């Protein structure tokens, strides 16, 4: 049953050094506040899973907290490359991370298999693709009915998943709206799940087929207004595109990166996110 | 009516947009493909279905998205589905007629690299990777590619097979069990290319106005073949240019001016 607790406590109780962890969000609803809390608590040796690792994994890798990354697209969306991830893979700073690379299709299927309690995902993919030559976790199975050769990848089963959502009700049921990405699967595939929300309301005010995660699927809920910034929360605030462009410059230099992290993460607080979305709020 | 005053980028986007029709269901890559697809929707193909991999189906943005998951894509979509549903039911299920991709590196058979420059394990440049591209390339009915010509991007040998085009050419796709057509069109800032029916090598079929064979060869890393009945691409019409320029102006305003269109997905 979801406990409503401060973010620092939710991270301390659910994320351990050496864990396999997913901070998911597909451009929308990226759990920046939760990732920053993990960085503040200096929880390291992590295997980071995400379809679209962007700024938060760039930050965690640059701070030396990642042992390995499992991903399908490692870029700054709409801007370019991830410079801290590149520095790790190309130059070994601050250390060289291991990486396991897939396609979006494989990762989406693997999360779904994890949520479904299956050991692997089967799909039609990777035909002619170079990744299957370099990733031993990309294999194949033969359909027992048609004989078709299909791709197979291991299910994703994180120790813990973190997501950000619009709102929870007072019982801790969570509503995710807009581009819902892979968040439901990330929560249901994980042993533990932590959700940050914009607000807690009496009534989710939704319709019968909405993407709702019942409270008993979630370990902890923390209220962090603005907790997705510079990503966005549909219906609450817009994407801060300028911050993504700015990140490209900050991350280009090791010292500038470390200085930025000290000021904006290590010496900051979850409550600071509310200020960061000022001027980006959408009319409701 | 045509306008003599247009850039090669505008010609590229407009030529690419003309290849799309009202009945297409198009999986849209970010950047140049996104601009071409939306120009088609705002001009001759108002009923085209545009799909972005974030799950937005039948989207109709007023401005070009910076990322594949911008809120406006969802606000204007017929429906927004989860990412696994997008890749399983809609892409793998064979519902998409055209996949529209960009490329960091491209070879003469339409094979694309967006993964690494150099060795995979110890790359000179680690690029973002394939995202949706490996299965877009195999599951869509056909693939259109658009990119600006340069010797860096159009190479004789790509460093990594992010997504499979025609492989080594000929019937290579069928030999590895693919049933879709693969790359059928390449639109650059200088020319329109189509695969030879037998070898599947891209052949220049139409030069954009004012472009010479020499320019095409100088900006391409392989020895270029030209069709015997080489055509000239019709220049952008005033109406086409107006649609594109209005779209770009709205986009600049919405994203604060300094946006870059770099990433593929």
UniProtKB/TrEMBL annotation, chain A:
InterPro entries: CoA_trans_fam_I, NagB/RpiA_transferase-like. Keywords: Transferase. The keyword Transmembrane does not apply. It holds the Pfam family CoA_trans. It comes from the Bacteria. The keyword Transferase applies. SUPFAM superfamilies: NagB/RpiA/CoA transferase-like. GO terms for molecular function: CoA-transferase activity. This is Glutaconate CoA-transferase subunit A. It comes from Hoeflea marina. The lineage of its organism: Bacteria, Pseudomonadati, Pseudomonadota, Alphaproteobacteria, Hyphomicrobiales.
TrEMBL record, chain B:
Keywords: Transferase. GO terms for molecular function: CoA-transferase activity. InterPro entries: CoA_trans_fam_I, NagB/RpiA_transferase-like. The keyword Transferase applies. Coiled coil: none annotated. Pfam families: CoA_trans. It comes from the Bacteria. This is Glutaconate CoA-transferase subunit B.
């Amino acid at each position: 049953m979801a406990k409503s607790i401060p973010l620092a406590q939710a991270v301390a109780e659910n994320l351990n050094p050496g864990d396999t962890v997913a901070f998911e969000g597909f451009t929308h609803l990226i759990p920046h506040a939760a990732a920053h809390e993990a960085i503040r608590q200096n929880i390291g040796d992590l295997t980071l899973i995400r379809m679209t690792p962007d700024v938060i994994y760039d930050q965690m890798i640059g701070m030396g907290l990642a042992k390995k990354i499992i991903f399908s697209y490692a870029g700054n969306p709409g801007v370019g490359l991830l410079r801290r991830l590149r520095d790790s893979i190309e130059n070994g700073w601050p250390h060289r991370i291991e990486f396991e690379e897939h396609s979006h299709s494989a990762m989406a299927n693997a999360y779904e298999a994890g949520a479904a309690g299956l050991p692997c995902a089967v799909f039609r993919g990777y035909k002619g693709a170079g990744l299957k030559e370099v990733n031993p976790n990309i294999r194949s199975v033969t359909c027992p009915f048609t004989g078709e050769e299909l791709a197979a990848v291991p299910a994703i089963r994180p120790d813990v998943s973190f997501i950000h959502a619009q709102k929870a009700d007072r019982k801790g049921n969570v509503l995710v709206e807009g581009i819902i990405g892979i968040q439901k699967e990330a929560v249901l595939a994980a042993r533990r799940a932590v959700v940050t929300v914009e607000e807690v309301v009496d009534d989710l005010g939704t319709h019968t087929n909405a993407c709702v995660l019942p409270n008993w699927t979630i370990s902890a809920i923390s209220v962090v207004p603005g907790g997705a910034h510079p990503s966005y929360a549909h219906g609450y605030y817009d994407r801060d595109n300028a911050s993504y462009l700015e990140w490209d410059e900050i991350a280009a230099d090791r010292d500038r990166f470390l200085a930025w992290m000290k000021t904006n993460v290590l010496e900051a607080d979850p409550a600071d996110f509310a200020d960061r979305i000022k001027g980006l709020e959408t009319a409701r | 009516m045509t306008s003599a005053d247009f850039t090669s980028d505008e010609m590229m986007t407009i030529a690419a947009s003309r290849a799309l029709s009202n009945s297409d269901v198009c999986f849209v890559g970010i950047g140049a493909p996104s601009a071409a697809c939306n120009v088609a929707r705002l001009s001759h193909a108002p009923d085209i279905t545009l799909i972005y991999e974030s799950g937005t189906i039948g989207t109709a943005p007023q401005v070009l998205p910076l990322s594949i998951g911008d809120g406006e894509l969802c606000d204007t979509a017929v429906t927004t589905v989860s990412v696994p549903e997008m890749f399983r039911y809609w892409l793998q299920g064979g519902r998409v007629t055209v996949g529209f991709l960009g490329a960091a590196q491209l070879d003469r058979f339409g094979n694309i690299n967006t993964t690494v420059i150099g060795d995979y394990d110890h790359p000179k440049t680690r690029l973002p990777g394939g995202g949706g591209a490996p299965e877009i390339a195999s599951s869509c009915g056909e693939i259109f590619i658009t990119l600006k010509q340069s010797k860096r991007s159009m190479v004789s040998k790509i460093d990594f097979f992010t997504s499979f085009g025609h492989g080594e050419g000929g019937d290579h796709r069928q030999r590895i069990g693919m049933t879709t057509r693969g790359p059928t069109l390449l639109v650059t800032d200088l020319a329109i290319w189509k695969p030879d029916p037998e070898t599947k090598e891209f052949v220049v079929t139409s030069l954009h106005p004012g472009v010479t064979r020499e320019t095409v060869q100088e900006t391409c890393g392989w020895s270029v073949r030209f069709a015997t009945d080489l055509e000239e691409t019709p220049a952008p019409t005033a109406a086409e240019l107006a649609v594109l320029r209005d779209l770009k102006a709205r986009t600049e305003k919405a994203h604060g001016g300094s946006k870059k269109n770099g990433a593929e997905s």
